[in-house]
Amino acid sequence: MSDAELQLTYVPDDQWLGELTAVVRSGTFSGQASAWFNRSNVKEVFVTSLSSFPLSSTAPPTIEGGVGKDEDFQCHLRVTVKPYNARGILLVQVDLVSDYRQATVIDASSSATIRFLTEYALVNAFAKDLDQVLDGTKERAVLRGSAS
Predict the structure, then answer these.
(1) What is the CATH number for 116?
(2) Which one, 2, 6, 71, 101, has the greatest CB density within 10 A?
(3) What pTM value is reported for the model?
């Protein structure tokens, strides 16, 4: 069994926006980050695309949040799930960046990219759980890695 997993929790600010926090680990690597997201956008775009089969390799399911706009955008959290091989194995990539205002060195954020492999059945269950997390009926959605 794989020891890789992604956990997402959501704390709403109002009926539209909330803070999505990701805790991810793969082997000895781990990290945590959060960003603000529009709840309905995450449900309608990310959750819906996670439930499709097969996942697109050219436009994989992705959520990305941070601060700023256009060329000044600073990503704090990005989650992407994309095909890895022809056998149906999927690659989960989570990009995490600490808030630069909370860094120990002024304007120096820490960052990590953590990847692990999973499979469609696990992603489908994760999508259902994430939908419930966004509705406030479940505490967290967990996407586990597979031993593939």
Answers:
(1) 2.30.31
(2) 6
(3) 0.90
